[in-house]
Input
Amino acid sequence: MTATGTEYVEIVDGVLRIVVATAAEGTAMDPDGIVAGTAALRELGPEVGAVVLTGTGANFCAGGNVRGFAAAADRGAHIHALATDLHDFIRAIDATPVPVVAGVQGWAAGAGMSIVLMADIALGGPSTKFRPAYPGIGLSPDGGMSWTLPRVVGAGAAREILLTDAIIDAQEAVRLGILSRLVADEQVRAEAMAVAATLCAGPRSTYSSIKSLLSQSLSSSLDAQLDRERDAIATAANSPTGREGVDAFLAKRKPSY
Output
């Protein structure tokens, strides 16, 4: 195993691991981790084949630091700055060409839930829980939740979840599509890293193309999307990855991407 990095970001065998919250401040979102994560995603090198989002405390991320909100001389300006940094991070995740995996242990509330909704694959445990948490403190959503949640769970369900500040348990989160699947609570972080490591060894250009097509489909007609798919698969067929995949299939061997 090879690893390089800091408290908030490290690269382990081709997986960029980003810590969005620590045990400090009750696992509230860590602004330093968010800023460090944005920088790491913007500077993503070719050695990185997947990203893992995680927290290092009991929870993935319990939302914003409400005590910090209350202590600010100008609460609006304080939250505006935090939201600006968070939204830079969300945009960086959205622009990331490699798969993004979230290991969601414990609570993902407020901004933590928003971050999970940006992941390509999200793993949780039986004790994982979600909550928008904004109505509970008289605030509106940030982190893109008003955009991502309707696209994941449907417009009607999103309205109910946000307006009632619903607590969503692990099984319901899987049913709604917020979580991809469940593993044992104590295995969430390790399984997220294992999934990311498997993706690192896969066809990276294929994953990038899949992510691009899925993103474009959100505002595309079927007719335009069919053209994109045709062009993308034709390009892939002549790429080193596509040639290796087809040749390995015919030779009944594992491809070397």
Remarks:
- The chain has two domains: 3-200, 204-250.
- Residues 204-250 form one domain.
- The radius of gyration is 19 Å.
- The longest strand covers residues 15-21.
